Amino acid sequence: MLSSSSPFVYSLILFLSLFFLLLFAPQILPFKKHQQQELEQNRQKPQSLITPQDELEDLHLFHQAVLSASPASSKISHLGTVNPKPKIAFLFLTNSDLVFAPLWQRFFQGNDHLFNIYVHADPFVKLSAPEWSVKANFIPAKRTARGSPTLISAARRLLANAILDDPFNLYFALISQHCIPLHSFNHIYTSFLGDPSSSSKAFLTQKSQKSFIEITSDSPHLHNRYVARGEGSLLPEIPFKQFRVGSQFFVLAKRHALLVLKERKLWRKFRLPCFDLDSCYPEEHYFPTFLSMKDPKGCSHYTLTRVNWTDSVDGHPHTYHAPEVSSDLLHTLRKSNSTYSYFFARKFSPDCLKPLMAIADDVIFRD
């Protein structure tokens, strides 16, 4: 008897299955589609490249640098009758060979007692040692990536190592591997620190030096940059009206460099990974925002590094090539609307080295 009814039962079960599938498919399928979209977004979302171990090591480094600069431990407070020379620390942030090292060597030549060089070279990229005779300090470096807070960490790491290394470093110029100088060393040094022959202990301990960093609130797509990590992600520490942007490259006075190394609150926000990668430039947001909130009158609000954005591609500025290099170009790049002319310029391709060296003495280093 059971066998005779089996075909009917099976047909009924199949019919009911199809009915319920058609009835609930509209509710089930969109949910699965939404899940798929969410998974795809999570795949595209960058994960933080800063490990807890990296964070702890950096915090220890920053703490040591701040302690070393305190009046109780600073060598400056025990100079006696010595007449020291304040120095500029040049901080090279690079993920490729320093192809313009010969030009920078020409720039530094003869001024060994007035500067120090520190290089943060991405350890995940194999680099050739720069061909220069001046001493360059390659600091312990960690991985960096565009559009991530690793570039903030790298800049802070350079600042901390420079402060620990030499208490007479009073200005810290962050430089790209694609940067070139636009003036002689003497011109730049004198503009920041005055005549080196008149340097004194009193100058080294003064607390009024200005920092040269771009700080602006009228940049295009400012709101997109503000919400790159998600709506409200920077609140409550950073209201939109206090959010600022600027150039990645700056020249900080020591007092501001120390403030940056002490800072923790804003860093917890800016270290978050971004959802909107097209608007995510943490290093261009963190430093201008923090220094604008902390000491706006102590900063120039303009950068000393000239960049040509007239034909930018994918967030990269115009790259100069060898045929464009000329004395006219160099003089044009110096011009600015601020108190100072531009001191540095980017972005230059490696093939520019030869023509730049050819006009270095007669143009670049002749102020």
From TrEMBL:
It is a single-pass type II membrane protein. It is found in: Membrane. The keyword Ligase does not apply. InterPro entries: BC10-like, Glyco_trans_14. GO terms for cellular component: membrane; plasmodesma. One of its GO terms (molecular function) is glycosyltransferase activity. Signal peptide: none annotated. This is Glycosyl transferase, family 14. Keywords: Glycoprotein, Glycosyltransferase, Membrane, Transferase.
